[in-house]
User: Fold this.
Amino acid sequence: MLTLGELASHIGAVLSGDATILVRRVMTLSKAGPEDVGFLSNPHYRRHLVHTRAAAVILGTADVAYCPVPTLVSENPYLAFAKATALLNPMEPAPRGIHATAVVASGAEIDASAWIGPLSVVESGVRIHAGVIVGPGCVVGAGTSIGTGTQLIANVTLCHGVQVGDRVVIHPGAVIGSDGFGLAKDGERWFKIPQVGGVIIGNDVEIGANSTVDRGTLEDTVIEEDVRIDNQVQIAHNCHIGAHTAIAGCVGIAGSARIGRRCTIAGAAGIAGHLDICDDVHITAMSMVVQPITEPGVYSSNLPAKPNRQWRRNVARFHHLDAMARRLQVVEQQLATLLKGNS
Amino acid sequence: MLTLGELASHIGAVLSGDATILVRRVMTLSKAGPEDVGFLSNPHYRRHLVHTRAAAVILGTADVAYCPVPTLVSENPYLAFAKATALLNPMEPAPRGIHATAVVASGAEIDASAWIGPLSVVESGVRIHAGVIVGPGCVVGAGTSIGTGTQLIANVTLCHGVQVGDRVVIHPGAVIGSDGFGLAKDGERWFKIPQVGGVIIGNDVEIGANSTVDRGTLEDTVIEEDVRIDNQVQIAHNCHIGAHTAIAGCVGIAGSARIGRRCTIAGAAGIAGHLDICDDVHITAMSMVVQPITEPGVYSSNLPAKPNRQWRRNVARFHHLDAMARRLQVVEQQLATLLKGNS
Amino acid sequence: MLTLGELASHIGAVLSGDATILVRRVMTLSKAGPEDVGFLSNPHYRRHLVHTRAAAVILGTADVAYCPVPTLVSENPYLAFAKATALLNPMEPAPRGIHATAVVASGAEIDASAWIGPLSVVESGVRIHAGVIVGPGCVVGAGTSIGTGTQLIANVTLCHGVQVGDRVVIHPGAVIGSDGFGLAKDGERWFKIPQVGGVIIGNDVEIGANSTVDRGTLEDTVIEEDVRIDNQVQIAHNCHIGAHTAIAGCVGIAGSARIGRRCTIAGAAGIAGHLDICDDVHITAMSMVVQPITEPGVYSSNLPAKPNRQWRRNVARFHHLDAMARRLQVVEQQLATLLKGNS
Assistant:
């Protein structure tokens, strides 16, 4: 437990209230009790503020007046909440060593402070640095390098020759370095193009559960530092993702796409291959990008759901939109002629 | 093998025909032979009825007249078919015990009637109840609880602190309890929000291959009883899915969405975060829900494919639809003025 | 290393230049150095040709004039590039035998030239043919058969009773033979339909990382020869995919769909269930097919992203498209009446 004073100091918030009150955890406004710190950053939950029983609430200046309990005011309440949660939920000390059931190739270099969990496989030529945690059931392919403090949670597959930076977190079921989908037509048959590039993953990257990052065909697939990738994201061969870009669940990025820095790609969006997206681009959910984007901004091609009956009527019209546009042109011309005659 | 009489009685169907005929399995109408029971529930396959060589056919009243062989008439022929299949394909008796290659932490409580398969990991503080089957290659994280008769087929990952109900089936590659995608902006960098909630999965839930269910940030992600989840579905942190809801393959549900009871969400649909969908809502395939839904019914935003040439012409017009609407307004006004002048 | 002469002969290209020059690898035009062979097949990268420092470039006739270095001219430069890459990157000789930590059921038949990797499980009744490679962490379910030269890279799950052909490659995290999503309504509850069919995978098929192929309900799910499946593809129960069809990442195909031969389905497209798509159909990315397709050709229903402000204006109009069409009809009728009166 921490005092509100300690918490305020750590998260950089201004406390109004008794600095000696002890708190145990961060909790949502509606569930927080007298030993909890609540928080308000999404206005969607503002209605819960007046009823909160929290010991204190992390919030922005604008909401202070409506808060019935002590406040921890921050310019960035969401970040302050995140820091408070981290502070009140310290990571458990990790084990170190190699579990007796792990299969480690001779010649793999494993730092003494790293942990290789049960039933994991570490192939030849692997270098595992200080403080790395390889959870249960992981496969670390030949020649792979894993940087300081990186965690593979469980059942992660790193194929051969993948380079992972420091403080990376890779969630269960993720596959890094699988072959790209490279095929050449040979008559009606397909000829597989060997995928001989690698994957380079920068520092502080996070890769979600069951996401996949293919190796490059000839050069490397590159994920720059602090890129954040949610679950079930597919990143194809030769992609290059710029630093600080965040990619939400179920996004697919086709081969050789280059995404800039500080972009956000919302859930289930798709990016076509062989195109560049500049820095600071934001793609909304379920949108499809098929042309290069050279200007920062928000881009969309998604359609919000409507009652099916109404939707179907509009879609039926959509399939005749070109004809409709032509009819409008005819009307405009006829009307122009009429108006000319009348004037 | 069973007699048609036994089968009719078990599945609650009315038999017209020889009750002593023996049948071995259920098969499709077009493939069924003289030891098989056929079935007809989808009208798409009605054309196969008159040619069937099945011993008998499960069907609804309306199709009886066209059936050349004995009939098993049911008000719900699809359910009757399902029951017949279950009856003719009884589950094999499961093994019990702990395979010699499984890694089980001391202190894990495992019922004597449960089975822990080869090369699975059961971490500390786990409680596994009667008749549970943990297939090969699974990871069961610390503090997890698995209810009576639940099956993890193979290579399933349950992260720490997940609570799974009774008679749940989790298919290979599924990941339950991975960290949610919680990030706060700290300048241009991301600050990871610790995900300290859990996941609660009700009784009779099924979760498909390579699906992912993230743990809650502070509270729990909740999947109520009898929810059915297909393959490659992504359910983000803090979601709450109501009982008897079915979610088809490739659906993505963003964080803190609340889905009602008895909903169906068809394949590859997307649900935005922080919204409520009421009971008895049906979302059609590939639709995107971005606003709360408060009325039961069918909702859509999908577009059916057309020949590309036609499609492209309509899309080109779509990108000028606002201008087109303005032009229509101008035409309407000009015409109104004209008509007024003429009257 | 190979001489340009040897390379030209092997890949069926016409060399213009010194046949004795030695090359080491294939590389992209912009990165190729004096020991590398470059290639040009995608016109997107033509701008790099004049600056290349490659020893030689594989290209088509049309580009020869712009190439500053020796040329390897091919009618199909992409195929020639693929063959060159394969030639210069020969597969390493595979190990053979059974790793000491693999768990192999007695009675499984494993060819002496096959390899069963560490921490893999091979269940009873399995037949593994010559030269098969089962990588680390795989599960090969009871009664499965794996044809000559097939590779399961790592952490692959084959459920029971799956038949895999020769020279198939299955990438990490893929799940073959999981239960289909078969449910019958029983009041408000779901009744699971046992999935008792199998999966048949033809020769020369490739299945990407974290893709899923469900077993059939009664008959088999069938993937014909030389079908190529990218990552995170979902193929539901009872599907039948014709030979030489290629399916890109994140595609979902619903149950009982039949896809023809030589089709291509681009990324994140969706195919509804219980429909037939004929041979030689090409579905563009993120399109949704809900009706049978009986004519070869290109089909689409995707919408390219635009700046959000412009997009939202057009979508707002779209939701009134039916009304707009009716208004246009009114205008047309009024105008026709006017024009009639004027004439």
Q: What stands out?
A: The helical segments of chain B are 4-11, 77-88, 308-318, 321-342. Chain B has four helices and 40 strands.
